[in-house]
Amino acid sequence: MIMQTKLHPALIAIASLIFLILIAPLFIILGAAVSDTPFLTFPPQGFTLKWFSNIFQIEAFRTTAITSLQIAFLGTFLALLIGIPAAYALNRFKIRLPSWLSNVFVLPILVPEIVLGFSLMKNITIGLQLPVYTTLLLGHTLLALPYAVRVVGASLASFDFSIEEAAISLGCPPLKTFLTVVLPNISAGVVAAFILAFITSINDVSISLFLTGPGVSTLPIQILAHMEQFFDPTIASVSVLLMLLTVGVMAIVEATLGLTFLTK
Amino acid sequence: MLADRWLRNKMVKRLSPWILAGPATFLVLIFLIFPVGSTLFATLTDAKGWLAPYMAFFNSSLRRTVLMRTIEISLITTVISVVLGFIAAYVVAHVPGRLKSIMIIAAVFPLLTGVVVRSFAWLILLGKNGILNSALLSLGLIAEPFSMLYTKGAVIAAMVYLFVPLMILTLAGVLEGIPKDVVEAASSLGAKPFAVFRQVILPLAMPGLIIGAVLVFTGSFTSYATPQLLGGERQMMMGTFLYQRAMVTFDWTGASTVAAIMVVVTIAIVVLMTRLARRMNPMAA
Fold first, then answer.
1. Which of B25, B35, B165 minimises the CB distance to A104?
2. Does residue B235 lie in a domain region?
3. How many CB pairs under 8 A join A and B?
4. Distance (Å) from the alpha carbon of B123 to chain A's nearest alpha carbon
């Protein structure tokens, strides 16, 4: 007989309350976004969609949203482009690479983001006179790199390299072997790394905070700046759009990997 | 193909590990180790003398207050997040399929939503026109709406809200990984539920619990957006103080000193606690 661990009803009640509190504030934003008042309030008074159309009238939201998407896509792509080969090398040539090398790719997680942002501004944008956009992109690439190296690396760790050996000894060229034999076997890791890195980049505040300049800023930074001046429901409606993005990402995660992969 | 001929070259073959790992290593070296290293180095080579920036930091009561407040808020946030996260994760690990999926969605959704949006939600909740004020007003508990923003409590509430999903997902994986027969063995040998929890489940979950706590503490300690929005000037924390020093007063030495303290505290805690977690793992014989 299988004994099912019984849960105390009080425990379930407390847990349900915790999950309710996790979700409720996000619905409150939704309510505040449609309130027909010039200030933020909940429960909403009246119903209007004018705050949504207001977003599109403010040019700063449009340009920063485009920058955010560009940086997130490009940064994640660059991180995968250099991170996958690094993950491959770390797994395939374990003995020929120094053992400290894998720790190098933990650094972007270990160093506080706000310290990295400040240091990039001080020593790269100002110190090396690199354009703000370039530094911002490289900062986000660094943010994405640990996902590329470690998540893809975890996939590679369970990959049987003798399959690759077989393809090569049968005459398959090395690059083709990687693309047609190795890559399909680690695709779940690549997808997971892409999603995690992308969402981290698009939501980032602490690095972007210091890497804004004339004409260059990201959406989260623009939201913070707007909030300091206005307390109208525009920000609530921007937040609703961002939450729709989250829903989209979750749908992709569920379709490709299953949401339970996030508990692993 | 040309690329393949190049890849078959003996020299290339010998160097291939470095050719593959090179670009990523180079990026970290030039755009992380160099800039962060120079920030830290600058605090040690100040013109006013060795360690002068640190003396200035610890001699100022304002800065000591900022540091102590940051430690206090981070510790309280960690403790509350661990307790709430553990309860929720324990239930997630033990409920049947359907309910479990709903609970995981409820934790993942806020986790994937940005820190600005999540902190903003608490701005609406705790503001003068917020739901908490309306509720208290209609219950007749208060006569005038009052702002709960810019208090320690507001920052802690939003921080806990920020980190509980992370804690739940970290611990759910750990708790699901505890072999069922170990728990069954303990209870079939007569251990009461609380004894099973204290002597079997908790020790087995401890490494995961410590890792989760480290993530929450270091995340709170170095946070910017939440203390900025809910704490403002009145509840200045290390992150907001660093920003203010760097971008408002242009005191770069002061900002670098704050950055250095953050790096030292973060790395010290991560290194010590992961070592502790490894030693406390009862599964590692």
1. B25
2. yes
3. 275
4. 9
Give B218 to chain A, closest Cα distance, Å: 8
pLDDT score, position B4: 67
Backbone angles phi, psi at A193, to 5 degrees: -65, -40
Interchain proximity A209–B118, CB inside 8 Å: no
Q: Which residues of B touch A119 (CB under 8 A)?
A: 35-36, 38-39, 259
Q: Which residues of chain B have pLDDT under 70?
A: 1-2, 4, 7-8, 282-285
- Asked whether the predicted pLDDT for residue A5 surpasses 70, the reply is no
For an interface test with B, the pick among A14, A18, A95, A247 (most B C-beta atoms closer than 10 Å) comes out as A18
pLDDT, position A193: 93
Instruction: Taking residues A175-181, report their average pLDDT.
Output: 89
Residues of B in contact with A19 (CB under 8 A): 88, 102-103, 106-107
- The partner residue sitting opposite B117, judged by closest CB among A101, A173, A239, is A239
Number of domains in chain B: 1
H or E stretch covering B151 = none
Contact A101 B36 (CB under 8 A): no
DSSP B72-128: HHHHHHHHHHHHHHHHHHHHHHHS-HHHHHHHHHHHHHHHHS-HHHHHHHHHHHHST
Q: Is A77 exposed, middle or buried (0-12, 13-18, 19+ CB in 10 A)?
A: middle
Do the chains contact at A15 and B91, CB–CB below 8 Å?
A: yes
Output the domain CATH number for residue B94.
Answer: 1.10.3720.10
| Cα torsion through B101, B106, B108, B114, rounded to 10 | 160
Residue percentage of chain B with pLDDT more than 90: 60
Shortest distance, CA B113 to any CA of chain A (angstroms): 6
Give per-residue pLDDT as tens, A132-168: 999 999 999 999 999 999 999 999 988 888 898 899 8
Are A82 and B27 within 8 A, CB to CB? yes
B19 near A95, Cβ under 8 Å? no
A204 and A264 together in one domain: no
pLDDT digits (tens, 9 = 90+) for A196-225: 999 999 999 999 999 988 889 999 999 999
With 90 as the cut, is the pLDDT of residue A175 above it? no
A264 and A154 co-located in one domain: no
Same domain, A82 and A148: yes
- Per-residue pLDDT reduced to its tens digit, B236-262: 999 999 999 999 999 999 999 999 999
Note whether residue B135 is domain-resident. Answer: yes
- Chain B partners of A227 at a C-beta cutoff of 8 Å? 120, 123, 229
DSSP state of A216: B
Look up the CATH number of the domain holding residue A210: 1.10.3720.10
> CB–CB of B24/A86 below 8 Å?
yes
ipTM (interface predicted TM): 0.92
A73 with A125, same domain?
Answer: yes
Looking at the structure, tell me whether residues A263 and A238 fall in a common domain: yes
